[in-house]
C-alpha cells in the first residue's frame, strides 16, 4: 500500500491510515511488527515509528517492551461523586482492577496535610503509595495520607481496594471534595505507568471523611490522561 505523500507530513498521513484500521482490531490485539508495517506502506522505520508515536500519545496504542505494540480500549469514564470508589466504580464497567501496595512510610505532616486533616504542629502521617492496574496495565499512582492515629487500622493492608479494606475495619469513607488538575510526569512516574514523559497526567487531590464528618484521608491520584475521563456529578 502506497501513501500519497501530499503536503502533510508523511508520518501524519500514515497515522491517519493506521487510526482508521484500528477500528477493525480489538483492545488487546497487537500490531504487526515495525519491519512488516514499514514494508507494507513503503516507508522507513523512522517514519513508521513517528506515526505509531502519534497513536500512542492519543491513547490508542501501548508499547510494551519485548512484546510489541498493543491496541488499547477507549478511555474509561470514572464518576467523581461523594460515594464513588476507584475499584468498585471501574469493576462495575467490566474492567479487571488491581491495586498493588508499593510503599508504606511514616513521616511528619506537611503544612497542607495538617490543614486538610486538621492535625497539630508536629503530628505525623501514615503514607501509602499504591499502583492501580486496569486489565493488567498500569494506569494510576495514588498516594494516600492518613493521621498516624489510623496506623493500627492500616497495619494489615497489603493491596486491593483500600476503601473496601477500611470499610471492613469499621471506617467507611465518603469523598468530601476533589481538586482536578494536570501536569507532566516525573521520570519515576512515567516509568511506573509505562508512558512517555511529555504526555500529561491527570491529578486528583481528594479529601475523604468518616461518617462523623471528620477528615481522615488526603489522597493524590496521578492517572494517564489517555486512559481516563473524569465525570463530575452535579
From TrEMBL:
PROSITE patterns: HTH_GNTR. InterPro entries: Bact_HTH_transcr_reg (IPR050679), Chorismate_lyase_/UTRA_dom_sf (IPR028978), CP_lyase_PhnF (IPR012702), Tscrpt_reg_HTH_GntR (IPR000524), UTRA (IPR011663), WH-like_DNA-bd_sf (IPR036388), WH_DNA-bd_sf (IPR036390). Residues 8-74 form the HTH gntR-type domain. Keywords: DNA-binding, Transcription, Transcription regulation. Transmembrane segments: none annotated. Coiled coil: none annotated. PANTHER family: MANNOSYL-D-GLYCERATE TRANSPORT/METABOLISM SYSTEM REPRESSOR MNGR-RELATED (PTHR44846), TRANSCRIPTIONAL REGULATOR PHNF-RELATED (PTHR44846:SF16). This is Phosphonate metabolism transcriptional regulator PhnF. It comes from Pseudomonas zhanjiangensis.
